[in-house]
Structures are given as structure tokens and as C-alpha cells.
Design goal:
With about 425 residues, the protein is mostly beta strands. The chain has helices at about 30-40, 45-60, and strands at about 10, 70, 140, 160, 165-170, 175-180, 190-195, 210-215, 220-225, 230-235, 240-245, 250-255, 260-265, 270-275, 280-285, 300-305, 310-315, 320-325, 330-335, 350-355, 360-365, 370-375, 385, 400-405, 410-415, 420-425. Helix content is about 5%, strand content about 30%.
Length: about 425
């Protein structure tokens, strides 16, 4: 269904299914319980409230109850259900709201930009055709339960794998960026944040993505809860970041070889490309309201940009992956798009993306607890490469997948949100 103009609708369960009643001493149904819990959190954006409700219901029901959401909200300001202190969160005044850039998909102009070494571009990952991976993962970060110690994670959202196989993770509910070296999977090192939840320049608020810009030797972080993208030097002794883009409901980031930054905006259902230092950006995908048309997106989340500057987008609530070629005014469905489900033709809340040098697309099929691949030119059916073994904590299981990536050897890394860990699956 399509939401009426200016509304956000969320149902307790997916079409054709039933919602769980409260059990034991719990008088509320499962959905209502988590809705009340999230509404009680002060200064939490409405988009995060309903995303969190959906994820928590899914996790507590062990994958059996899947809330369904549609939205047609198209604004560039905050919506809070429980505003407490306007100074404690991103709260733009009318004069500070983003002025929308012209909604065109033009080719970037300007001087030639140097081409830095970025973390594992598609052609650097050595993944042969018909590759196979170990079916049991090895924990390389976290896995010690939910917590804020340096050997723990709290709902990690994504990851970035550096050239030396260092794994950098936005540790969302700990409000920090933490990295694990290849040879030390016991404890991580906090590299940004860790000063508590807040909006000061030495703080983060539920960061959801991170990438490494080798040109400036810095992290670029999607500071979701503060509605901003920040840059944080990797040099030892760095205590705070600087704001690159403000007043944006950013969710995920990507960077191409010309150092253009791409940001998905879940509230405005669009993806924009920015030159570093630019504030408004250029529309490259979506921006035509929430919907399932080829020129629309419905909660775009994860991104991947290939060497031709084609943008791949996890169109989460449409349960599909879209490819927007450079300069295109509408996208192409390259995976899913056959409704929400667990058939090999379907996806269920797709999240992390990766495209290898052969054009094979890898998708973290989040609520199906599997990683699935689509070969170039075949959008009809995918192939499960790891997972798909029900909801659980086993070495071959997941509890709500988020990001994924590969190292240059072709080993697969997967963020397992509900198990508070990152798993590596070795290429065989």
C-alpha cells in the first residue's frame, strides 16, 4: 500500500500474518511494548523510533513477527514524539534548514580530483566466479554479549574493512567507532566517540556507518542521531571531529574513486552525492517521494558505488536492490522486487551491499538471516552463500544482518546485529 501524503504508517506485522499478544505479566502486545519503550526515549527522531520498533519486535519474536512500514514524509527537519531539550539534539531553525538543490542527475563538474586508495573497492576483492565460502563464521569482533567494554558491541550497524584487514565498526548504541586489528580479536580500540551520547564535536549519537578516506587519513562517519556527517582524523591523539554535512537524516555512506561522497537519506527517500565541503549535494537516486516506482525509493539504507559511479541502493521497505546508472532519472531492479518473503526471488528488508569486479551483487538479506548473491544480468533469482539457517546464535546463523564487506582476499565479513558481533566467513 501507499501512505497518504505526509504520513508514516507502521503495522504491527506483515500483510497476511498475525501479531503476538503479550505473554505472562506483559499486558501489552509485543509491538505495543516496544513502541512504548521507544517513544519514552527523549529527542529520538520518528524515523529511528519506528525503525527500532521494527527491529526489536523482529528480534524478540525470533524472526516470526515482521512489522510493515510505509511513509510519504518529505521534509528536511526533525519530527520528535518526545522532545525534551532542544539544545541536546540536532534541531535546525527555519533559517538553518537545508535548501534543496535542484533535483537533477547531472555529471559533477570542476577540476580533476586525485584518486586515493579506498578500502577494498570492488576490483580489489579477489572473488572468482562460482566462489564458495565456509558455512561457519568466525567471530572477529564482539560476540561477548551486549555491552560497552572494549571486547563487546551494542547493536553494531555496519563495517569497513581496511587494506590490512582491520575491521572498523560503527558501534551504534555505544555511540562510538571501534576497530579490531586482524591479529587481536579479543579487544577493540575506540577510535572516535566514547564520550557518551551527545552532539558535541567529541561525541557521537548512534552512528550508523563509517568509511576511511585515505587521502586525508580520516574516518567519515554517519552520525545518525545528530543528523550530520562528520570527519574524524585517524591520527593518534585526535579527540574530536568536524562537521562535513549538517541537518540531514543520513543513514549510510559510500565514496567513489574521485572522492565524491554519497549519502542515503531515509526521511526524504533519496541519495545525494557531495563533493567534500559541499552542503547541498546533487540528487542521484530517488527524491520523488516514497513509493515503489522506478524513480522512487522507500527507505533507502545501504549503498555501494562502482567504478562507473553507478549507485546501488538497498530499497529496504520495497524489499529490493536498485541500481541507478550515472545520470539516470530512474533505477533498475537488480535483486528482489517480488514482495517481502524468503523465496530465492525475494528479499526481506535488504541491508548491506557489495559488488565485486565481475559485477556479482552480494546482499545482506536482513530479516531472512542470510547473505545472497545475484549474478550480473540475472535479477530473477539469487543464491544463498551463507546463513539461511533460521534465527539464532550459532556459527552458521544470524540475528538480524546489517552491513557486509569483503577483504582483498575475498573473505566475507558480516555484521550480526542481534548477536552483537562481526563474523568472518573464509573463502574456500
Amino acid at each position: 500500500m501507499i501512505a497518504p501524503g505526509g504520513t508514516l504508517l507502521q503495522f504491527a506485522c506483515a500483510p497476511g500474518s498475525l501479531a503476538a499478544d503479550g505473554g505472562g505479566q506483559d499486558r501489552n502486545g509485543l509491538y505495543t511494548k516496544h513502541l512504548l519503550k521507544q517513544i519514552a526515549v527523549p529527542n529520538q527522531h520518528i524515523d529511528l523510533i519506528f525503525s527500532s520498533v521494527g527491529a526489536e519486535v523482529y528480534k524478540e519474536s525470533k524472526g516470526k513477527q515482521m512489522p510493515y512500514r510505509v511513509s510519504s514524509i518529505m521534509i528536511a527537519e526533525n519530527i520528535y514524539l518526545n522532545p525534551i531539550d532542544a539544545d541536546s539534539k540536532w534541531s535546525p531553525s527555519p533559517s538553518s534548514k537545508r535548501t534543496p538543490a535542484p533535483k537533477t542527475c547531472s555529471t559533477p563538474s570542476g577540476e580533476h580530483k586525485p584518486q586515493p586508495t579506498l578500502p577494498i573497492p570492488s576490483s580489489s576483492a579477489n572473488i572468482p566466479a562460482n566462489a564458495r565460502w565456509a558455512q561457519n563464521g568466525v567471530t572477529v569482533a564482539g560476540g561477548k554479549g551486549k555491552g560497552n567494554a572494549t571486547n563487546q558491541l551494542n547493536e553494531p550497524c555496519g563495517l569497513c574493512v581496511d587494506d590490512d584487514q582491520t575491521v572498523v565498526i560503527p558501534d551504534c548504541k555505544n555511540h562510538r567507532i571501534i576497530q579490531w586489528k586482524k591479529d587481536d580479536t579479543t579487544n577493540g580500540q575506540v577510535v572516535a566517540g566514547d564520550k557518551g551520547q551527545g552532539n558535541r564535536l567529541n561525541q557521537l549519537n548512534q552512528p550508523t556507518d563509517v568509511l576511511i578516506d585515505k587521502e586525508t587519513d580520516s574516518f567519515i562517519i554517519c552520525d545518525w542521531g545528530n543528523g550530520r556527517v562528520v570527519q574524524w582524523s585517524r591520527q593518534s591523539g585526535t579527540t574530536q571531529g568536524k562537521i562535513l554535512i549538517d541537518n540531514i537524516t543520513c543513514w549510510r555512506l559510500a565514496m567513489d574513486e574521485q572522492r565524491y561522497l554519497y549519502v542515503s537519506d531515509t526521511l526524504n527517500n533519496e541519495v545525494r552525492r557531495y563533493q567534500l565541503g559541499e552542503k547541498n549535494g546533487t540528487l542521484v537516486a530517488g527524491g520523488n517521494g516514497s513509493g515503489d516506482g522506478l524513480n522512487q525509493l522507500n527507505e533507502p539504507t545501504y549503498l555501494f558505488v562502482d567504478r562507473q559511479q553507478s549507485v546501488y541502493v538497498s530499497d529496504e521497505q520495497n524489499h529490493r536492490v536498485m541500481k541507478w546508472n550515472k545520470g539516470a532519472r530512474e533505477g533498475i531492479v537488480v535483486a528482489g522486487g517480488q514482495g517481502q518473503g524468503n523465496a530465492l526471488t525475494q528479499l526481506n528488508n535488504p541491508n548491506g551491499l557489495f559488488v565485486d569486479a565481475l559485477g556479482t551483487l552480494y546482499v545482506a538479506d536482513s530479516w531472512n538471516n542470510r547473505v545472497i548473491s545475484w549474478t550480473q544480468g540475472d535479477k530473477k533469482q539469487g543464491t544463498v552463500i551463507v546463513g539461511g539457517n533460521d534465527y539464532g546464535a550459532g556459527a552458521n546463523q544470524f540475528k538480524l544482518l546489517r552491513g557486509l564487506s569483503f577483504d582483498r582476499h575475498g573473505n566475507l565479513y558480516v555484521v550480526d546485529d542481534g548477536n552483537h558481533r562481526v563474523q568472518r566467513f573464509s573463502i574456500e
